[in-house]
Amino acid sequence: MPEDLYYYPESFLWVRKESDTKAVVGLTDFAQQQAGKVSFIRIRPKGFQLEVGKVFGTMESFKWIGALRSPLKGFIESMNEDVAKNPNIVKESPYERGWLIRVEYPSSDDSISKLLTKDAATKWMEDEIRKAKARSIT
Questions:
Q1: Which domain holds residue 101?
Q2: For 2, 35, 60, 128, which has the most beta carbons within 10 A of its beta carbon?
Q3: pLDDT band (50, 70, 90) for residue 137
Q4: Would you state the pLDDT for residue 112?
């Protein structure tokens, strides 16, 4: 998990701040590993209004179909067309080429400050893995 990112555990997403009003959002490596082979990613169109927790897309794999919920308030400035054509880019390069959307958000918004840093996200993920192992039947 890169140090320079913020993490939204509710949707297993990361956020890379580009400026005071722009950020890129993508799927964490942990999430893509759990998903398996990704068959399809649907993203709402450019200009779609985002609210924290609001669905902006879905991801389908051979294991499940899941909602992608926004970690930020704002709107979709652009989506990664390469991922739309080849969704497995999120598996090959989740933190670089596999980004999902670029978001423009109000400079007054404090959504990013509510996201987890790497250390807090790592602890949260370790707790989730422990819980999953405790539930599994061996």
A1: 6-135
A2: 35
A3: low
A4: 87
Alpha-carbon span 79 to 77, nearest angstrom: 7
pLDDT of residue 55: 97
1 found inside a domain = no
CATH number, residue 57: 2.40.50.100
pLDDT tens digit string along 70-107? 999 999 999 999 998 999 898 889 899 999 999 999 98
Closest CA to 32 of 66, 5, 57, 6: 66
Both tokens of 129, joined, read 């893995």
CB 17, CB 23: distance < 8 Å: yes
